[in-house]
User: Fold this.
Amino acid sequence: MSAEAAAPTGPHFSLAELFRPLVQPIIAVAISVLVGGLLVLTLGENPFEIYWLLISGSLVGWPNFLVTLQMMSPLLFTGLAVAISFRAGLWNIGAEGQMIMGALFAGIAGYAVDLPTFLHIPFCLAAAFLGGLLWALIPAVLRVWLNVNEIVVCLMMNPIALLFSGYVSTHLLKAPGPTNKLPDIAETAMLPTFSLYSQVNAGFIIGLALCLLFAAINGWTKKGFEWKIMGLAPRFAYYGGIRVPMHAVVVMMISGGIAGLGGAEQVLGEYRAFYDNFSPGYGFDGIAVAMLANFNPIGVVLAAFLFGALNGGSAVLQMMTGLSKYLVQVLQFIVVLILAAQFTWGWLRSRKNPITAQEDRLEPETEES
Assistant:
């Protein structure tokens, strides 16, 4: 045997393995750009000019770039919230309702409590986290103890949160005046902004920090590994000694709390009060961001930036060409549709495999249960 054959080779990391998670998102974005270009052609416009307007309107110039960061900020929270739960095998599509409840709690804490700045801002953030946590606790408990599908419960909880917050802001705690809102928060509760050109505030830094934190948790901690195993093979995790039901509740609570912090970023940093129906759908956009990120916290930052740039450039696009800003939503919808199709195809293939097929219950049935 030669010396070369006997020498240990050690671990091998190929570029294909490193970039494999990026393949599906890149394909989805590329197809979306292509289909969007064909759609623009049918409207009699030049696709290259339209896409350049989107890019320049969101990235070229400091004011435009700040608007992109402003649009990106809430998506950091909702995208991360969805990514955490999906990675653990829990379908938390209630980030919209959890964000609304977090914003409501933050708005009440912002005007009803008198504290110095160094205490008031953390208190409002904690209140927002609690609001989102409690709203996510309901589907979590129903999922674990009654095996009620969390998708159905979350879908029901979203409009309930919207209606409840609307009742509070239009009747119970409405501020004087024609606008349906709570009273303005105190100055001690306001998140500092970074520029006069936009409402980018300290919440953006908080969102980035949370993404980095959970990237570290997922990559280097026991809890992150356990959550990943829960998502890949819940029965294997259960028989391996992981307390799957308890972890499911914890993950849903953390996910809801982070979505609630996204509501606090809007109330404490951008609007400075809770407004009825303030969210244009950040929670639902967070699902698209998480899917594009492949449920990776670092990918959430990149996907949120892409969506923020598209949303920021859409206003410039409409002003310069007359094309509807909803063209951007069409592009986003195509991305989500492709990713959902790829995900569904992979899920169906895994269900056909008797080794990887999983039951719907978080823990296996026993004769006693």
